[in-house]
Design goal:
14 helices, single chain, globular, alpha/beta, 362 residues, six-stranded parallel beta sheet, two-stranded parallel ribbon, TIM Barrel
């Protein structure tokens, strides 16, 4: 990410008035290897392939802010591998994780974790260290540290179905597991900051499992832990929350947790999200990523993009898809989003230009 792109994103996140609405996409290993026609294994294991892939994408779309930018991640392997989850790799897909915590009482038997030495977290930090100077020498910044959230990590370690049952059947044990995962997440984010250095000014937290619980369970099992994570970092940092599952249970409460940007899924229209959140968060969304972003025609993408922008009212929004960029989203559909955004920004500026003209004396 270029410094001027990060400055634009920060200003949008803080809901400052911008001349142009920006466009940002969350891109990582589900999308990049397929888009470039390379294998996932090469992307993960060949440092030069990873570097050149990210550089190529950023140069191909200079008007898109890629979030979190230069994301070194082994799918969703880092956080659960710190706590011993089994990670499985395939040539042409993102890694999967398999739970290893069969009994909640075994949490007390876990060895002490060290995010700088454990599992794929250690490998990720090493890769960041390898490329940091090279990235900065290009004039880029590394502004965001990134982690899966505590419920997401708990689901990986315990198994999502069993974890959902734990919330009902073993509340005390569930809290113990979520507390452990929260500590891992905070330490993991801080370890990335330590390696990346002073250009870091924000966090991106991804936790779709929050979308599977009721509002009461959100307030008990998610909100206190999400708040702890936000409070562990400077108050002026940008704090982005991603959840492309259901957001009804958490939507009204996320600003109070400390997040100022919401990236959510296709399920809920931006008009309702804006009505409920008001001016408390910047909305990063939410063109349907699969049915439109991947499978739609450029004309359909354009129409969906304009609908999102119009629904936003032209303020407090960063154009994006509803979640991460889905595997298979083609170039022409990203270009269609950009073209629609340029048209919208142009029309949005016209009334302002007319007002200025009308105030000119004579």
């Amino acid at each position: 990410m270029m410094p001027e792109q990060w400055d634009t994103f920060k200003r949008a996140a803080r809901r400052e008035k911008l001349t142009n609405i920006p466009m940002a996409l969350i891109v990582d290993s589900p999308w990049i290897p397929g888009y470039l026609g390379i294998s996932h294994m090469d992307y993960y294991l060949d440092p030069e392939t990873w570097f050149q892939s990210n550089l190529r994408v950023m140069r191909e779309f200079p008007d898109v802010i890629f979030v979190p930018s230069w994301w070194m991640e082994y799918g969703m392997a880092a956080e659960p591998s710190v706590l011993g989850a089994k990670i499985k790799f395939w040539p042409d897909n993102t890694p999967g994780e398999y739970h290893t915590l069969y009994r909640l009482e075994d949490i007390d038997k876990f060895p002490r974790y060290e995010v700088e030495a454990d599992g794929f977290a250690a490998l990720t930090l090493h890769r960041i260290h390898m490329h940091k100077s090279r990235i900065l020498d290009l004039g880029h910044v590394l502004p965001l540290v990134t982690a899966r959230g505590p419920l997401c990590t708990a689901g990986f370690v315990r198994g999502t179905t069993q974890f959902m049952l734990d919330l009902l059947e073993s509340p005390k044990g569930a809290h113990k597991l979520i507390d452990l995962c929260t500590r891992v997440v905070i330490d993991w984010l801080k370890a990335q900051h330590k390696v990346m250095g002073d250009t870091v000014e924000g966090i991106l937290l991804l936790d779709d499992i929050v979308g599977f619980v009721s509002e009461a369970h959100y307030l008990e099992y998610a909100h206190p832990y999400l708040t702890r994570i936000c409070e562990a970092f400077p108050s002026d940092w940008v704090k982005i929350y991603h959840n492309d599952a259901a957001i009804d249970a958490c939507l009204d409460h996320l600003p109070d947790a400390g997040f100022n940007v919401l990236n959510w899924g296709k399920q809920k229209d931006i008009r309702e999200v804006k009505r409920r959140v008001g001016d408390r968060m910047c909305l990063m969304g939410n063109v349907n990523p699969l049915e439109v972003g991947v499978r739609g025609t450029p004309d359909e993408v354009r129409a969906a993009t304009l609908d999102v922008l119009e629904g936003s009212g032209g303020e407090g929004v960063i154009l994006s898809v509803g979640g991460g960029t889905s595997p298979g989203m083609p170039r022409q559909n990203i270009v269609a989003m950009l073209d629609a955004l340029r048209d919208f920004n142009s029309r949005r500026r016209e009334p302002e230009a007319e007002r200025r003209w009308s105030t000119v004396p004579g």
